[in-house]
Amino acid sequence: MTTEHSSPVESHRFPCRTCGSDMRYLPGSDRLHCDHCGAEEVIDGAGPWAGSAVVEQDFEAALSNATGAAAPEMEETRVLQCTSCGAQVEFQPGTHAAECPFCATPVVTDTGIHRHIKPHAVLPVLLSEREARAAMSKWLGKLWFAPSGLQEYARKGRRLSGIYMPYWTYDADTSTSYSGQRGTVYHETRRVSVMVNGKSQMRTQSVPKVRWKGVSGRVSRAFDDVLVLASHSLPKEYTDALAPWDLAGLQPYQPEYLAGFRAEAYQVPLEDGYAQARQIMNAQIQADIRFDIGGDRQKITRFQTEVRDVSYKHVLLPVWVAAYKYRGESYRFLVNARTGRVQGERPWSAIKIAIAVVIGLLLAAAVGYGIAVTQ
Hints:
By secondary structure, this protein is an alpha+beta fold. It has helices at 59-63, 129-141, 148-156, 236-241, 270-293, 350-374, and strands at residues 24-25, 31-33, 40-42, 57-58, 74-81, 88-90, 97-99, 106-108, 112-117, 121-122, 161-196, 199-229, 251-252, 262-263, 297-326, 329-336, 342-344. The strands form 4 sheets. Strands 4, 10, 11, 12, 13, 14, 15, 16 and 17 form a 9-stranded mixed beta sheet that branches. Strands 1-2-3 form a 3-stranded antiparallel beta sheet, with no helix packed on it. The model is unreliable at 1-9 and 348-356 (pLDDT under 50).
């Protein structure tokens, strides 16, 4: 949302102490790097041990807008909103025109102020832009039916954009009572009529049957870091496929990690994110119930879950994004900036498909001719 200036706007610019140029976070390290003079500065508190300092936040207190230590800490950042895909991406102060990194649509709009819950943790970029481009090029090389022009343009196009995507994580303790049925499979032998060479014959056939028995019970599960994407800018099928994320590497949020990168503001409110998390939890709880019921088949007729001690975090996870306009269409490729896993929209070349069909027909005809000659 857009608000009046009620507090200083968070800045993610860090001038080099040596030459004054903007420093950027150096992927896979604990420091900032100056591309102009080569100077480096260590980020205070960074390191593999810092993940233990990430603090879970009280969910109920955040929803009730509680005051004091339990109230969520807010920040204000400058964002541009894409009129095409709806992304709200952080840009440096004074930026009023740019290209959306998610869909390559020109963005020309007034810079707005976005007030939101401050991130609690960040998973720092591990792969450099060069490494991410190499992973994307390798992935593109496997897409034989993609247009050659797009593959070439993607490989030799402009640099990828480093983006921190907004996520919520939720923790909760659950206890679920249920009732259902356990099915045990057994077999009955029957005489059935079958047609053999146009004649009816009687055959013995084993038919599976299920014997059901009513059951009830209780299962418990503690959920840790149920991850929910807090953005609508990219297709969920692609962002989900970037998993797994090594959340053990989360660092307490420091703006230094965002230096030289962009961050998207969350679009999914905290409470809506929790509703999605509950769906994920319920799917796991039902799997637990089926395991607890046992047997060969299971039916769940009723279950009721008590949820306690819900906590959350607003976290930022890194991706390298390439958005290309090709013949008027936008194509997007995502690279997990921790693992190098690639996902994206797969265009199809009608010419290549037609060539493949022709080759297939020719091969089939050749095989058919060979068989005919040998007979």
